[in-house]
Structures are given as structure tokens and as C-alpha cells.
Amino acid sequence: MAATAGTPRARALSAALREARTASGIGVRELARQAGFHHVEISNWETGKRVPKTETVAAILGSLRVSAQERERILDLARNVHEPNWLTVGLKGIPQQLAGAVECERAATSIVEWAPMIVPGLLQTLDYTRAIKCVGGLPESDTELRVMLSASRREVITKRNPVDFVAFIGEVALSEPIGSCEVMAEQLNYLIELAGRSNVAIRIVPLGTGWHPGFAGPFVFYEFPDASPVVHFEHHSSGAFIPAAHDVEEYRKAIRWIDDLAMSEDDSTRFIAKAVVKWEERTS
């Protein structure tokens, strides 16, 4: 059980338990009294230091009186928490994956992302994110909820003691129109602003480099102080967390390969600034 602590699925489970209790308005000690556990155990399960058994999760959810749908979602995490890889297919699976990604971002000491076509989520402006979600045809209320969630995730790179974040961005992302010209100009100016932070490195990978492992698609590489590294893939309606040592090492090699091809941070900032000028000229 302890061996699975720190995995994306275990982190998602701890977050789900914490959020369910918070939503119910019950404190840790009161929940411990009602469910028959020690408050330290509850705390350890909610912070991810320990992984509870499925029957323990069921008892906690019963005390919290969560809805049947939410109960099944959280129990599904608990039942499969020992599975090393985490693959979901279909839009219904994405919320759990998103919870895992959020918890990985919060716990990571460093994040490296390869984004060949668009600006990485942690670096997006609200309007850029909104433009992406609107094209997907979501109801306005769902769109705004996801936009605000995306904005809250940015805190991991802007808070005190932030995570170190390296973003390798394909040149295409600077020229592909997402939203209006104004949205693009604002987004690229924001990249330049974030590039000035000591914990953020933005590197542009130019076109014409020839084949490299990044051609296989985008990925995020998380490193933690208390667990092994994990690679995350997120696609249109599916996603996966891969912790296998062999795969992780292959993606370390891919990062080194992309690093060799990418512009320096200073050259990347200048390149982005030129792209800003082009978008601003199209607005006039």
C-alpha cells in the first residue's frame, strides 16, 4: 500500500477525499469520530502520505454522505490505486486525470513540458484558454469553470517557492491563431513576462530541425521529492500517466534531444517578441 503513495492516481484519490470532506463542511477530527478512525490517519490519507483501503474509503464516503455518482468516482480511484499505469479513454475519464495532473503539479519539484502546437496550459492567459475551450463546443458555464481551473493551476509557477518549469514550445504555437489577433498578442507578451521569472525557462523549438522524439506528440515530465518521476500524456479525449522506469528514462533522453534543438532562453524571448509584432500589426 505504501508503495503506491505518490503515484498520480494516489494523489488524485487523496485530493478527492480532501475535497469531499471540505464540501461537506466537516472537520478532520469530526470525520474521524464519525467514521471511527484516528484524525492523524485521515490527515495522512488526505495529504497522500498513506493510501487507504477501498473499504476505508467507502466508510469515509458514507460518513460524508456524498452523492452516488461522486461515491462511485472516488471508489473507482481507490479500487485501481495499485495499478502502475493510468489510462483513461473518453471525455468522462478526463476529470479524474485532471485531478491527478493538478496534484502532480502541486507536489512536483520540477516540470518539463513539450508542447509542439499550442502554449502549455500553465503559461496560458485566460482569453487564450477560453478560445480553446469555446471551440470545443462546451456550454458557457462549463467553459468558464474550466478557464478558472486552468488559471488557478498557474499558481504553482507564480507562488512563493514555485516549481521549476521548463517549457519547450514548437514554433507553430506562435503563429497558429487561437482566438483573435489581440488574444495571440496578449498571450505571447505574457510568455515574455513569464520568461523573466527565475523558475521558468521558455525555449522555442524552431521548424526545420528534422525528426526528433517530440514528433510523437506532447508530454509532461514530473519529478518529485518523495516519489519516482512520471510522464503524462493528455490528448483530446484520453490520457495516461506512465511511471515505468524504462519509459521515464526514454523521455529523459527525449528531453535532452529536444534541449539540443531548442533556441536559448534569450533567443527564444527575442523570437517571441518578433511574433508579437506580427500579431499586433494584424490588429491595426
From TrEMBL:
<dbReference type="InterPro" id="IPR043917">
    <property type="entry name" value="DUF5753"/>
</dbReference>
<feature type="domain" description="HTH cro/C1-type">
    <location>
        <begin position="17"/>
        <end position="71"/>
    </location>
</feature>
<dbReference type="Pfam" id="PF13560">
    <property type="entry name" value="HTH_31"/>
</dbReference>
<dbReference type="InterPro" id="IPR001387">
    <property type="entry name" value="Cro/C1-type_HTH"/>
</dbReference>
<dbReference type="Pfam" id="PF19054">
    <property type="entry name" value="DUF5753"/>
</dbReference>
<protein>
    <submittedName>
        <fullName>Helix-turn-helix domain-containing protein</fullName>
    </submittedName>
</protein>
<dbReference type="InterPro" id="IPR010982">
    <property type="entry name" value="Lambda_DNA-bd_dom_sf"/>
</dbReference>
